[in-house]
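Intended use. Records like the one below are meant for learning the mapping from a protein sequence to its folded structure. Do not use them to infer anything beyond what is encoded.
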Amino acid sequence: MKMVRLCLVVLGVVCFVPLAQGAEGDPISTETMLIDVPTAEVFDRYQASFLTRAYDHGTVMESIDFGVYKRINIGVSLAIDNWIGSSHSVKVLDPDFQAKWKLFDGSLYLPAIAIGYDGRRYGYGYEEDTRAYNRSSKHYLDHRKGGYVTLTREIFTPGLALTAGANFSDFDWDEIYMFTGLYYKIIPQINLLTEWDSIRNIRDSRLNMGARFYLHPSLALDMAFRRVGRGDESERILQLRYVTTF
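Structure written out for the chain above:
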């Protein structure tokens, strides 16, 4: 109950803290995702986003998202285990899809709101790896985001934004998780990212932190840590996003 109360407080802050107006930036500066946490922002119609992510076990995941309609993004992703390194047990994982619909742009007193589905697993691991796989239940410990609702707004000062929401992995209504995150553009070329994801209890939740570097108006590089403070379970990731039009 304490976890749920804390998340409700965060949602309340998102809704009622006065909005600080910020100028619109380049297309890449539309923060549709933090690290694992989705925001309420979407890419514009006719924009395409290409995201390459390298993480644990030499895994590389490629995600492509399209702004097919105003306020609606759809995409597909594919990951390959052991692609980086010398391992010969390269494994192509099943493709996943993601979609997001921005319901409300936000106002002076209300946050932007979006709903969506994200089928990507941001920590696959192997069946032999007990850190990422539960042998008894035969389920990965890093669940898909699944269906979600997310709220985002700028708070206190331009460049500082707060996101909070809830998700249910694989449409299992008995397991509702919550998430929250902050991102702050300290200078036009650097954005700091912090998120608390998969909040249901302390053991299942993940604290992720990182930085986003804008190398070009259409190109951004992310360097981040997942499961901060978890010892051997902590993970370093690197991802590159390119945004263009079609």
